[in-house]
Amino acid sequence: MLVLRQHAEQAYAAELAALAKADDRPRPASWKLSPWAVVTYLVGGKVGKTTIEPKYIGNRRLMEIAVATLATDRALLLSGVPGTAKTWVGEHLAAAISADSTLLVQGTAGLSEEALRYGWNYARLLAEGPSENAMVPSPVMTAMRTGKIVRIEELTRIPADVQDALITLLSEKSLPIPELNTEVQAVQGFNLIATANDRDKGVNELSAALRRRFNTVVLPLPASLDEEVSIVRRRVDAMGTALQLPPEIAPLQEIKRLVTIFRELRSGKTEDGREKLKSPSATLSTAEAISVIHQGQALALHFGDGELRAPDLAAAITGAVIKDGNTDQLVWREYLETIVKKREGWQDLYRAFKDLEP
Length: 358
What we know:
The protein is an alpha/beta fold. The chain is 47% helix and 13% strand. The chain folds into two domains: 8-218, P-loop containing nucleotide triphosphate hydrolases (Rossmann fold, 3-Layer(aba) Sandwich), CATH 3.40.50; 225-355. It contains 16 helices and eleven strands. The strands form four sheets. It has a five-stranded parallel β-sheet. Strand 8 and strand 9 form a beta hairpin. It is globular, with a radius of gyration of 23 Å. The two termini are 43 Å apart.
């Protein structure tokens, strides 16, 4: 059975094996690869006859800082606006370091402290009382026991009192279990990667005590149009395979037009800097651009001639840009009339957008 999405250590098993075979540099305790090999896995390179595909396209130094942090006793906080590959980088760091990216806690507003510490099998708890067998370990506890990396997504969405459960864990590297009058001490190799969304900064701000336990690496948006186009194209090709969407139906020209629209609306100015624009409420991130291309591919494959064209792209873009009713609608119409309509070679896209209007 073909799974919809493989874990990083499964999808890139050949690359990880090639790196492990050629890696003769010092490795921290319990690490499957050396810090140098982990960075190579993330930014790409050549190992023997194996080409390592870049997982992160951007400043290599940021990846070196992230990996160096995890080699110490400091936890890593990946911060940035939505769509800057925080989750993607965190998953691949865990895959390269621990060969296991599945130890994950998804942060939500309703998350309980049990999700970060441990819970109980209540049937066994009632039958046997508090015991090791009745305990249900969290991913954090499992990572501590096995010396692996655990990931916590959307840390700032977790309630503040639940966040504080991490303070003792990160400072003492131990997890008290008062019901059993014992504790779990972290095995060498254990560490924690958290992500935080800049747009959520005011939701549940991290306490100063907790923030001190992290080294923060801010992942920026792609610096240039070509860099963002490259990221979108690589991810579209990789994810399209699982979705059974042939990559050849997404021409580079259409990807470039989409990324240009997103970058201009996001930054509030045209790529050449000559005209100022209003920005919609949508984040219009790189991750959202990838989703738009996939939607356009599906439209082209199942309801078109098999190649992504302007009408397919227009249908997918409109829903991504217009999130907040009338305000976004006005911003979008102004962009269509002042930029898209006048841009050379974009008349087919302009007509496609106008055809969608009621």
